[in-house]
Amino acid sequence: MPQKTLEVENLNVSYFIKNRFVDAVKDLNFNLFAGEILGILGESGAGKSTVGWALMRMIDPPHRVSGRIVNRDQDVMSMSERELGEYRWRRAAMIFQTAMNSLDPVSTVGRSFRRLLLDKQIVKSGSEAQTMVGELLDMVGLTPLVADMYPFELSGGMKQRVLIAMALAARPDVLIADEPTTALDTLTQFSILNTMLDLRKSDRIGSMIFISHDLSVQAFMADRVMVMLKGRMVELGSKDDVFGKPAHPYTQFLMQSLRFSFDDTRKATGGGKQGGSGCPFAQFCAHAMERCYQEFPRTTPLSATHSVACHLYGE
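Structure tokens predicted for ABC transporter domain-containing protein:
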């Protein structure tokens, strides 16, 4: 059995919006194993990005986060600020959605990169930082000359590669990539995805959580896929399980929707709206029973690699 990089137990996240709490993630349980890429798949509003933010413990009051997130036998939820500083970047790093616009516009890539390496105490000297910047840029397919360039001189794909290099600087146990190729053209997108797969073979990434609504991207990247709908995990399995033998009616619908746009899928499932204690797909499901509207089903194992949360299975 591979070593567990992360253990997530009963993760719940609620955002405080307009004087009330709105559930964004409910009762989420999963493990991330060493060396694997776990894809989190779902439409906009499913809670995918919220999971990433919660794993980094970046959701602050008045919003609510509960559950256990265990890395190296330590619960991230119980960490002090000092311990969190060690956990972020060194043990878990995240490439945020649209983060390529976050590079300092008045600083060269190299200067920003060196500042990060020194601030996080990844290196001890400026010369050591200079060497590492060149090595990391080369690792993500960029010439070391990029270090002397400003963000406005870089294409979108080049900016994203810079951010990937920064995220890998401390050799994190977990890299969380949140829609890392959004807004890039198809050729650039798959070039970056191939780079990320190549990096997986190096010692720079322990495991990866890859967040994307794009089914084709998940099929290309993931070893296992977790399907989310309106804050709930409805299916989890190997890529072959989820794409080849989808069990949950929602996952089956997603596979059929490959012929349509994802916007059409969102309209058919009510978008990302949350609420209710039953299955979030019940009102659209041809197999729905009365209990589907009243209680969310337990997760039922279908095989050693495949599980589903659906009343059609199990009892």
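The first strand starts at residue 4 and ends at 17.
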